[in-house]
Amino acid sequence: MPSRIRNFCIIAHIDHGKSTLADRLIQKGRLVDDRNFQDQILDNMDIERERGITIKSQAVTIPYTSSDGKNYELNLVDTPGHVDFSYEVSRAISSCEGALLLVDSTQGVQAQTLSNMYLALEHNLEIIPVINKIDMSAADIPGTRQQIEKDLGLDSEEALLVSARQGTGVDELFEAIVKRIPPPSGSASAPLRALIFDCHYDPYRGVVVHLRMFDGAVRKGMKIRFMSNGAEYDVETLGVFKLALAETAELSAGSVGYIIAGIKTVSDVRVGDTVTGAENPCNAPLPGFREVKPVVFSSIYPVDSNDYEELKTSMEKLKLNDASLVYEKDSSAALGFGFRCGFLGLLHLEVIQERLEREFNQAVIFTAPSVKYKVYLRQGEETMVDNPMEYPDEGRVEGAEEPYIRAEVITPTAYLGNIMSLCMEKRGVQAGMNYLDEKRVELIYDMPLSEVLFDFYDRLKSTSRGYASFDYEITGYKPTELVKLDILLNGKQVDALSQLVFRDRAQARARMVCERLRDEIPRQQFKIPIQGAIGSQIIARETINPVRKDVLAKCYGGDITRKRKLLEKQKEGKKRMRMVGDVELPQNAFLAVLKTKEE
Q1: pLDDT > 70 in the chain, percent
Q2: DSSP state for residue 148 in the 8-state scheme
Q3: Is the four-CA dihedral 174, 176, 178, 181 of positive or negative sign?
Q4: What is the spatial distance between Cα 594 and Cα 84, in angstroms, rounded to a whole number?
Q5: How many angstroms separate the CA atoms of 351 and 367, rounded?
Q6: Are residues 526 and 583 in the same domain?
């Protein structure tokens, strides 16, 4: 019955204890015995456990008997906290009626706490504020209550006190979920209408579709239809998530579950699509999700060009499980065929790279990340460029604009000066500064997105000893001085290493790339110049000295002209070699260009 179902998610800033709280709720619902229990139980990817972060939002159904003896079905969605995975959070929120907003009592309200709360309010969710980590010695409960009241505008008296690590206050939390979160609306007798909020690929059973049921019911053997493309399938099995997939006879309005319908064509399934019955379809599809807008672009190529087809299949399967990945075909003279991909941030790019290598055994090379620029040509045309290979000739370019962000940094006042210096170094312009209380200040900066890409987040964390939090949104485009930086190896341009950079930073960037390549490329029989160039102007150079054979070893004494003759002969040979010699770029040279010096 829909009146006994509650759908809720846990939202918070990074490291405020979402996954730990989900662990306690699962233990309380006895979904797993103590022998098989492990921390971060919903984070089922190795990369999530190693980094200690949640990347994929995961759903689980928890049975609960309330204090008045009624049985409830609680559908919990654990969400990521990092700004790069905010699309996962928005999808999780749209399949719920309520949200637990976690605030760390030692750190208070942070940047992502605010943005996630606004996301939940947009979807009209019932928000339950929860103060976590009350067992810590640094916990400041009165101060956190004050911040919830002042910064979030929520009633701090209704905030629940829990310790996710020790399990304190979990019973009161269960009761609050049942009493304060509304049951799902929807009719079990209406035509079937369900929203696809996630998918994953099973090599034996095809695509497993994750659904949130809004109207109607779905049963085994029923013919279903995807509304975006009209593809029809027969339901083979269906069920709910109880850590493993637990089969049930039917899914009805209000519940969250999965269906398997022997879907082998990966492209038929789209996250955000509406599923309905083939015999009795609904009138209109559900609104779905807003289109994802990638902000970081990079090309990806297989190390061995013969693996292109395998990489293509892997990308399709990965796209199924990560709806925020956008890609199209691409090619390069140096690396062959590959894909141009769009990501939500640099961490997203790293995660995709690791998942391709681990889950699909793909050996891949990524090019330097870039953002999308607006380029104005002298003929009056306007074009969007995210790939340095597509950048028009310098003579045809009238001007360019780059994307800007409105960055919000919340930091303890002790680190204010250092953080302001960092933002100014990254071409940031201060747009506001608010003291939230005696100890915390909010800085608002307008800065170019390209400056935030590489190492801004890492440096912000190290500058503030991990206390500053950062959130941003894209505001629009502003004029910039843009140039295309080419890297020449032995006089030949390596297209995969080209970058679009701000003119004043071009020389420093070129010098850094040349130095990295000098350290990574093995020495040859001839001298290899590595040059950074803007058009025909060389702005940086490094040289890899040749491996030299001692041709004078057999000369002991005698005339100097004989020695000179041998050296001249060697010089001629090296010159000829350099004319025909090809320099092989090792894979780690591409990776070295992307890394900062410390890494």
Answers
A1: 89
A2: I
A3: negative
A4: 19
A5: 15
A6: yes
Rounded distance, CA 79 to CA 412, Å? 26
> Which residue carries 């039917």 as its tokens?
250
For 142-163, what is each residue's pLDDT tens digit?
888 888 888 888 888 888 888 8
Q: Is residue 209, in this structure, part of any structural domain at all? A: yes
Residues 6+ apart with CB under 8 A from 378: 396, 397, 398
Q: Quick check: is 186 in a domain?
A: no
Q: Could you read off the pLDDT of 451-488 as tens digits, one per residue? A: 887 677 778 878 887 777 777 778 888 888 888 888 88
Supply 499's token pair: 């970058």
CA 88/CA 19 separation, integer angstroms: 15
3-state secondary structure of 257: strand
Strand partners, 486: 533
Give the end of a domain, one of 456, 480, 504: 480
Backbone angles phi, psi at 594, to 5 degrees: -80, -25
Domain-ending residue, one of 348, 366, 384: 366
CATH of the domain at 127: 3.40.50.300
Whether 286 maps to a domain, the answer reads: no
- What is the H or E stretch that residue 131 is in? strand 126-132
Examine the domain organization and report whether 203 and 168 are in the same domain. no
At 120-131, the pLDDT tens digits run 888 888 888 898
Residues 260 and 317 reside in one and the same domain: no
Is residue 19 located within the same domain as residue 64? Answer: yes
Q: 329 and 299 in contact (C-beta within 8 Å)?
A: no
- Burial of 467-491, coded b for 16+ CB within 10 Å and e otherwise, reads ebbbbbeeeeeeebebbbbbbbbbe
DSSP 89-105: HHHHHTT-SEEEEEEET
CB atoms within 10 A of CB 495: 18
pTM of the model: 0.73
| Residue ranges making up the domain that contains 53 | 2-180
pLDDT reading at 44 higher than 70: no
CB–CB of 290/321 below 8 Å?
no
Same domain, 476 and 493: no
Domain total in the chain: 5
Which regions of 38-91 does DSSP assign to beta strands (E)?
Answer: 58-65, 71-78
Beta carbons within 8 Å of 315's beta carbon, 6+ residues apart: 325, 327, 339, 356
Long-range contacts at 44-51 (CB < 8 A, ≥ 24 apart): 45/355, 46/358, 47/351, 47/354, 47/355, 47/358
Q: Say if residue 120 is exposed, middle or buried (CB neighbours under 10 Å; 0-12, 13-18, 19+).
A: buried
Instruction: From residue 167, give the alpha-carbon distance in Å to each of 22, 137, 171, 173.
Output: 11, 17, 9, 10
Is residue 515 included in any domain, yes or no? yes
**249: helix, coil or strand?**
coil
Q: Are residues 476 and 495 in the same domain?
A: no
Amino acid letter, residue 405: I
Please indicate, yes or no, whether residues 159 and 37 belong to a single structural domain of this protein.
yes
H helix and E strand count, the chain? 14, 31
Q: Are residues 384 and 525 in the same domain?
A: no
